[in-house]
Amino acid sequence: MTQSRTHDATRRLLFLGFVIGAFALGTSENVVAGILPDIARGLHVSEGSAGLLVTAYAGTVTVAGPIVTLFLDRVGPKKLVTGAIALYLAGSVLAAVGGSFAMVVAGRVVTGLVHTTIMVVFMTAAMRVAEPGKEASAAANITLGLSVATVLGVPIGVFLGQHLAWQASFWLVAVLAAVSLLVVLAAFPADTRPEEAGAAGGSAGDGTPRAGLRGLGRPELVIGICVTALTGMAALTVVTYVAPFLTQGSGVDSGLIVWIMLAYGVGCVIGNTLGGRLADGRVLQAMVGTVTATLAVLAVLLLVSGSAVPTVVLTVLVGLAYFATFPALNTWVASNSQGISPNLALALNSSAFNIGIALAGWTGSAWLDSDRPIENLPLIALPPVALAAALAWFLVRRRRTGAGHTGPDQDPAGEAHAGSPTTA
Q1: Average pLDDT over residues 17-21
Q2: Tell me, what DSSP letter sits at residue 190?
Q3: Where are any strands of DSSP class E within 192-249?
Q4: Residue 190's Cα: distance from chain center in Å?
Q5: Closest C-alpha among 197, 98, 138 to residue 335
Q6: Backbone phi, then psi, for 205, in 5-degree steps?
Q7: 193: Cα separation from own chain's centroid
């Protein structure tokens, strides 16, 4: 009994370190947009140039994330995650102390290089040490850190950056990364055997990067990643341009936007938590349900757009429905990567998410520049999310006909389930 309690306490401490780390990453990824004018003034560059800090981070995450994860997939999980967090900490400090724009960009690139690796190791480790049947909730604990960062981390970082100095925002991220690093060092089990180097990733075959690529064409995996990109593209098309959509399209007072976005963030947290509970033991059903719910909410939003109160309510519900898809999608992708690498599969899923964001920005911008009614913005979000829902339902049909041979009934970490953190 005492040993069981010790394992439970260690698991909770480890999860806390994961959530703090995810909170740091979510804050760092999004805080720059809120302090761009301050950074521009401090570094004596234009706001357009300062915006490249956002591009440098997001671009590095999208392109380098899977590549770094692939080539480091055979490194022991504790060595990999602690080294990655330490590098993220160093990059954050470099951005905070950088006296030139080039140094700050370098800091952002360094942090972007390991963002995906940190997140996927957090997620695969969390699912592996979770109680049986609770893997999706464990994955939701990690994305909870990202969604809470939207609600609290970014506003706090912006406040510090505006009232102290823009560097304070990066120091906040550095402190959070340092706390996460200390907790993970204390609670993450040691890599005791050479073969454990691949345990977190589960690469097949000879352990080379090429071996980690085998099987990535598996239909269940490809479709899951496509659903991630398409759903993200749909939801973020509205969210990216939420301010003009609400103020110009529905007549909402601009002074209310900050409170609406706070409500949206709360909706994201609720959706993430609810999605984790729905997906425990029912990953495919939860994926279909949450993606279909996102489609339904966006369709209703199109119907009521132009009317202030219903539009605000539906905008918040977009966040709730969309974030509810995260646990099921991540768990599905991880659980269908046995013999390949859950780490690499989740890294590709993360890049798909960022590609969805990029496409959302592009299509939304094209709609706004075309002088079409801005209240009809959800119209261009419907095709991608409808396709995502159709693909999810196709997976259900494929499973019922027996065509899909892998899935969430298997361990998401790619190995036999372990009930305590000592097996991570």
Answers
A1: 87
A2: P
A3: none
A4: 26
A5: 138
A6: 75, -135
A7: 30
Give, to the nearest 10 degrees, the angle between helix 2-31 and helix 52-71.
140
**Residue with the two structure tokens 């997906």:** 279
Least confident of 40-49, 168-177, 369-378, 399-408: 399-408
Per the CB < 8 A criterion, the answer to whether 380 and 367 are in contact is yes
Does the predicted TM-score (pTM) go above 0.70?
yes
Residues with Cβ within 8 Å of 193's Cβ and at least 6 positions away in sequence, in order, are: none
Helix (H, G, I), strand (E, B) or coil at 18: helix
| Residue whose C-alpha is closest to residue 242's, from 124, 360, 417 | 360
pLDDT tens string 138-159 = 778 777 777 777 677 777 777 7
Tokens of 119: 């997140």
Q: Tell me, what amino acid is at 292?
A: T
Return left, alpha or beta for 407; rule: phi > 0 is left, psi -120 to 50 is alpha, else beta.
left
Amino acid (1-letter code) at residue 112: G
d(CA 145, CA 236): 19
Quote the CA–CA distance of 304 and 314 in Å, as a whole number.
9
Two tokens, residue 282: 């029912």
**What's the N-to-C CA distance of the chain in angstroms?**
21
Token digits for 236?
A: 């973020």
DSSP annotation of 362 reads: H
Show the tokens assigned to 73: 């997939």
CA 78 to chain centroid, in Å, comes to 21
d(CA 421, CA 3): 12
Please state, in angstroms and rounded to a whole number, the distance separating the CA atoms of residues 326 and 254.
Answer: 30
Q: Which of 320, 331, 329 has the alpha carbon at shortest distance from 269?
A: 320
